[in-house]
Amino acid sequence: MSKSHGAKSYWLMKSEPDAYSWDDLLAEGEGTWDGVRNHRAANNLRAMQVGDEAFFYHSNIGKEIVGVVQISESGIPDPSDPEGKWAAVKVKPVRKLARPVTLKEVKADPKLAEMELVKLSRLSVAVVTPEEWAYILKLAGEGGKD
Prior knowledge:
5 helices; ph1033 like fold; 146 residues; 6-stranded mixed β-sheet; disordered N terminus
């Protein structure tokens, strides 16, 4: 996915809330997104730029999009990888969604049928199109246009 004229990109980042939750990120103020060992997900991490935004998704328990984070530092080596071949980024919380959007809702909505969260369900760091981003914010009760 190429960047055009500094346009912001959108992502979805999954975390198991019993390992690292939205509340953990809020408590830290800034977190390091590391431990990703899937090549496509790692490539997505490498593609992130400071200022990009991502949905924070609770996987495993809850299975819902709970908040929005902003990439605060990009292109850093994964501190959990002693060999230095895996990528990481730093994220800061932007806001908790007005209402969480569940995986069940996303899967049931034909407008989101092509979303990587649905099509590549095991991917821990996924691309979100600007249209999907706006629509999910609308589902979360945050207004916006179609």
